[in-house]
Amino acid sequence: MIVIYRIYQFTIMWPLMLAVTFLTAMLTALGSMAFGGRWWGYYPPALWSRIMCILSFVKVEVRGREHISRGTSYVFVANHQGAYDIFSVYGYLGHNFKWMMKKSLENIPLVGWACKRAGQIFVDNSSPHAIHQTMVAAEKQLAGGMSLVVFPEGARSWDGRMRRFKRGAYTLAREFGLPVVPLTIDGAFHVMPRYARLPRYGKIILTVHEPIASTEPELIELSRQAIASSLPCDETL
Fold first, then answer.
1. Average pLDDT of span 84-104
2. pLDDT value at position 186?
3. Contact call for residues 79 and 151 (beta carbons, < 8 A)
4. What is the CATH number of the domain that holds 93?
5. 8 A C-beta contact, residue 156 and residue 102
6. DSSP characters for 70-108?
7. Banded model confidence at residue 163, pLDDT cuts 50, 70, 90
8. Best CA proximity match to 119, nearest among 52, 17, 21, 31
9. Are 192 and 82 contacting, i.e. CB atoms less than 8 angstroms apart?
10. CB atoms within 10 A of CB 131
11. 203-221 pLDDT, tens digit each
């Protein structure tokens, strides 16, 4: 079965993925430049993410979506298992948002340009001034009623286990008084871990937990516990 899947990947899946990615990046960038990134920066990439999962034979199941309201701004925080985390959240969360993403992703040909035009926030930790500019960009989006999605671990896990959470997303949530919504991604490590070059078919479960008030003194730990509650025990150490 895996041999047939690999043949399919090289002959059908990858060519289609490249074509869809190119079209989505162009549509997102041009639409955002002409009409703004609120709609064009979310809906075309959300559809792209679903197509990427469908082409990979990756099923995404969402649990707990009733915990969030469409018209409310949140700071979503999620564990970071692998490359398909992005497709899972973008395609299936069902809530408009901007990403806080690593500055290095800005260098991805065409995709980085499209993300910049769409108003995604690139995290630059190279200097105090750069960090300040990152926070200003995030504050601008939040002040406009937008939600943010952040991977507080900062990078994908090497072994599927959660790493230490950084404070940036929580600082923004407290400053704007926005609830923090933990997201658990389970299964993305199996589909495509950090060290893999090719994905595998499988299932990802995206669990949306109840919002946590930003006034909670143990906000980071409470969100981490919520995320861990929907993971197998060996992924929470």
1. 94
2. 97
3. yes
4. 3.40.1130.10
5. no
6. TT---EEEE---STHHHHHHHHHS-S-EEEEEEGGGGGS
7. very high
8. 31
9. yes
10. 14
11. 999 999 999 999 999 999 9
- Alpha carbons within 13 angstroms on the beta-carbon side of residue 65 total 10
In total, how many domains does the chain have? 1
Residue of 27, 21, 50, 52 whose CA lies nearest to 118: 27
pTM: 0.92
Q: Which two three-digit tokens encode residue 15? A: 């060519």
Q: Tokens 């564990």 appear where?
A: 79
Residue with tokens 């589909």: 191
- Residue 229, both tokens: 């509650």
Handedness of CA 17, 19, 20, 21 (dihedral sign): positive
Cα separations (Å) of 45 from 31, 62, 79, 115? 12, 18, 21, 10
Neighbours of 132 (CB within 10 A): 11
d(CA 123, CA 129): 12
pLDDT tens profile 110-160:
999 999 999 999 887 777 777 778 888 888 888 778 999 999 998 899 999
Residue with tokens 């899946």: 13
Query: Residue 130 carries which side chain, given as an amino acid letter?
Result: A
Average pLDDT of span 17-35:
97
**Residue 172: alpha-carbon gap to chain centroid:** 17
**Containing structural domain, residue 48:** 2-235
